[in-house]
Amino acid sequence: xxxxxxxxxxxxxxxxxxxxxxxxxxxxxxxxxxxxxxxxxxxxxxxxxxxxxxxxxxxxxxxxxxxxxxxxxxxxxxxxxxxxxxxxxxxxxxxxxxxxxxxxxxxxxxxxxxxxxxxxxxxxxxxxxxxxxxxxxxxxxxxxxxxxxxxxxxxxxxxxxxxxxxxxxxxxxxxxxxxxxxxxxxxxxxxxxxxxxxxxxxxxxxxxxxxxxxxxxxxxxxxxxxxxxxxxxxxxxxxxxxxxxxxxxxxxxxxxxxxxxxxxxxxxxxxxxxxxxxxxxxxxxxxxxxxxxxxxxxxxxxxxxxxxxxxxxxxxxxxxxxxxxxxxxxxxxxxxxxxxxxxxxxxxxxxxxxxxxxxxxxxxxxxxxxxxxxxxxxxxxxxxxxxxxxxxxxxxxxxxxxxxxxxxxxxxxxxxxxxxxxxxxxxxxxxxxxxxxxxxxxx
Length: 443
Hints:
This protein has 443 residues and is of the alpha/beta class.
């Protein structure tokens, strides 16, 4: 488990809500004053659900899951609910069309793949938690499997009016779209999520559900059901849905979603996603996605304002999130790879990570035999790679001190590049000036 667990001291219970407010993580709350009083009274059991619609979590899942971890670090008891049942239906919240329905086998496989990712975000071992408050991972398919359709309609459905359900934003938005509308299947999703909250409250004493602000209607439906069937009070706390400062959807790149599974988004590309955060967003994301305290974030904000070119805030953000999701060693490797594209040395970089770097810059191939013997004239290689428009320009750039081979300045216009310069026997990295890179691969 990464740094926050090793160094965190148990915080006073009441501080968590204030911390969330400072971080800008409170969108809505059913009764903020009463929730703060309840949090101050002692540890609370809370939950957040995720629908296993893919075999990996993505960057957008991090806000609520990291919030669960914040609560756990403060001594509270988090539950992560895998939607083996609700995931087979699909949540209409924030969707303009119905999701593709997944089979039970696909859902089970997705949940199995996500479990190790959750284990990096939450601590499931009681011995490793400061307050003996291990997280739980449960699947709502376990408590819905034995409930018949008629029993569900009679025991749960009777507590909801259609008028009440239609008034929910997630349902109303879909009903207003005459082309797509909403199916009865997705219309029923709210009842299933309300049932989850009711079961967790009844069986595990869960008093708080957190989720994105688009979940408000679903969460409050659960609160109503708990009040009607159990006569208990429960809370809802929603977190803001993120958009980037330029209005684009958070967690998306040109290549698609940013996944937590390194097989889908490499650690290097994951790190790059955070290091490339818009200057306008970086301080906000430090608050959302890291465990840095007020003093550290304020210091980074001052440094960012005074010298944005140093990118200290971006580096702190990328390192902290990559460390959290992939571990310190992987984060360190990704940071080294990123530094290479800012002129850092290539020593100690792995072949897999170097291949990621090659994929980030313009690349050309060349017959491997050309690197034998005396090798390829550097002037010719620069023109072949597209860094220089002509051999004459290449000569001028070399003599002017602006050409680097594997990030080492090459001042000799008569130099050649041989097999000994090929990284992992395949690639040579060329640079012109500070930021213009190209790679040539021997084939």
